[in-house]
Design a protein that fits this description.
The protein is α+β, with helices and mostly antiparallel strands and 209 residues long. 37% of the residues lie in helices and 24% in strands. The longest helix is centred in the middle third of the chain and has 17 residues, at 110-126.
Length: 209
Amino acid sequence: MSVYKAIACIQGELAKEGIGKNRKNQTPGASYMFRGIDDVYNALSPLLAKHGLCILPRMLSREVVERKSAKGNAIFYVTVEAEFDFVSAEDGSKHTVRTFGEAMDSGDKATNKAMSAAYKYAAFQAFAIPTEGDNDADATTHEVVSAHVSPEQLADLRKEVERTGADLEVLCKFYKIDALPELPASRFEHALKALKAKPTLAAPVQEAA
């Protein structure tokens, strides 16, 4: 099939020089060079046209989690699962590559960055593009802290603890925390579901006077 011939030809041309790291991370305290999505597009676009290969993306799923940066600001962590159809313009033969992309952003660009990451690493793997060092580097880095349950979520948990008479010490030990307010937000649904599955604590029987 022509699709594999096209992939092999592009791989052969990229093997000569690869894609160099010509961009520098601008985050204070983090110094390293990286290759961005524009570098991948610039290297691939003429080769894709030359060898008649199309790369068509398809997003399968998207997950977003809100976290807090070390400074206390909201930051969004997005993971996308994507498929890329490598299609030969010569005979329509196709090969599909599935990969994931992850990214964080304090604004509205996390999903865009995650999609770019998915494309970038699908290309690196499909074409075996030569790289050096850490090829997961992006233009920015973020220091994050685990987001704890919100006051509303904490109230729901305490209500269930009171209803069931659950042992808080055992509960905290299970989730490896010192106190219930330290429960990660990502574990809230699991904890609440487990508590809701417990029966209501029976009221003590009062003896007749």
